[in-house]
Design a protein that fits this description.
This protein has 5 helices and 14 strands. It has helices at residues 2-12, 26-48, 175-178, 195-202, 263-268; strands at residues 51-62, 67-71, 76-81, 88-89, 94-99, 105-109, 114-119, 126-127, 132-138, 147-153, 165-170, 181-188, 217-224, 250-261. Strands 1-10-13-12-11-14 form a 6-stranded antiparallel barrel. A 4-stranded antiparallel beta sheet has the order 2-9-7-4. The longest helix has 23 residues, at 26-48.
Length: 270
């Protein structure tokens, strides 16, 4: 009964209304404010931040007209060679002479002016119709300006347009030391190229199979930004670039910046 009396007495006493009630301790408020600040910053970044969209593709640094393989129209023995690796040839100039089985001699003529990349035959060699005699880097009017030819799979080509920025990692130039070669998209082919078309364009300088993709590749031609202050004559992401000239017919990987978008648009588009 003593216990029951104390319980009843407790019920009769008024509540301690003058004692403040602590809904959340001070450390809890710090946590809430911190989370609110983080969420607000994330929302602001999603709306006002910018993320670049890029596409990477392999290709080649080359003259604007590309390279051409000169093939023999005759079967027989190579009796003479009139060109050397690295030498210049004119349109209509004989590269070699082939003597057929009847003893008749036939000149193998370059249809284009340019520089000889390589002679593929030797004197005394027996060749067939269609054998490659030489690979010629075709000269362009107005000097030795180089471009980059990138081959972008059709499935990744949406949105690529002239004027977009391109950074090129050149195989002969260590990017970690000398940076990337700067350029801009000059043109985009209307239709995809097949492996044989790529091989014909590049003159067989690199295996077309390495650039082939299901559905074909679009040819993206990139103009290279010039800079007279560098040894190469082109603009790089480093101040001086490499200490040597930029050689043609060198493999390169280009990163094309398509657009800059707010991060929230990536979520909305899904």
């Amino acid at each position: 009964m003593k216990f029951r009396f104390k319980a009843l007495a407790k019920l009769r006493e008024p509540d301690e209304l003058d004692t403040p009630t602590v809904l959340t301790p001070s450390r809890g408020w710090v946590t809430i404010l911190s989370l609110t600040a983080v969420i607000a910053a994330a929302v602001a970044w999603a709306v006002f931040g910018r993320l670049p969209q890029t596409v990477s593709a392999d290709g080649l640094i080359t003259p604007p007209n590309g390279a051409t393989q000169v093939q023999s129209l005759y079967a027989g023995i190579v009796s003479e060679i009139h060109a050397n690796d690295g030498g210049q040839v004119g349109a209509g100039q004989d590269l070699a002479v082939v003597r057929d089985a009847q003893g008749a001699s036939h000149g193998i003529v370059s249809l284009f002016a340019g520089q000889v990349i390589s002679i593929e035959v030797a004197e005394g060699e027996v060749i067939e119709v269609g054998s490659t005699v030489a690979t010629i880097e075709r000269s362009a009017a107005g000097g030795r300006q180089l471009v980059a030819m990138l081959f972008v799979p059709s499935s990744q080509s949406a949105g690529i347009a002239p004027g977009e920025s391109v950074g090129l990692s050149v195989a002969s130039v260590p990017a970690a030391a000398f940076g990337l070669l700067r350029g801009r998209v000059l043109s985009v082919s209307q239709f995809p190229l097949t492996a044989p078309e790529i091989s014909a364009l590049l003159g067989g300088t690199i295996p077309a199979a390495t650039l082939a993709a299901d559905g074909g590749n679009l040819l993206v031609t990139v103009s290279l930004a010039k800079d007279s202050r560098t040894v190469s004559g082109y603009s790089w992401t480093t101040k001086k670039g490499p200490p040597q000239a930029l050689l043609p017919l060198v493999s390169a990987t280009g990163t094309i910046t398509l657009s800059v978008r707010a991060p929230i648009t990536l979520l909305i588009s899904r």
